[in-house]
Design a protein that fits this description.
By secondary structure, the protein is an all-alpha fold. It is built from 6 helices and no strands. It has one domain.
Length: 132
Amino acid sequence: MMRLNNLTDLANLLRSINNDKPKDGMGFDMHCNLWDSKYTELECGTACCIGGWVHYIKPETSYLGLIGAVATLLHKPVEFLDKTWFEVDELCYPKQYEKAWDATPQQAARAVEILRDTGKCDWDRAMREVVA
């Protein structure tokens, strides 16, 4: 299983997900958890959205919630306590850009990279740069 040490690892993981026909039963869906996903037959209640995949790969983060799990990949504790919490929250629960709920794994990977590179969550840019 892949190790997740930072946001680059998370972006690479998301980019590798094929939602057409998930071979291992694991898919990607920003709308819901695994139980309700249209992309999987598994019922374990783990990976499906960005934070869920972090929980799946790093089960020791499951007690942190989705935002906390993604935050473990930031390595910026001081910034995290300030504005970064909002940015990670927006990455996991898009409110500023409604279309992000329909993001493909590749679009989500780009959103993670933008957060990594700029410190800002910009779903609009990610969705424009990676056409579904």
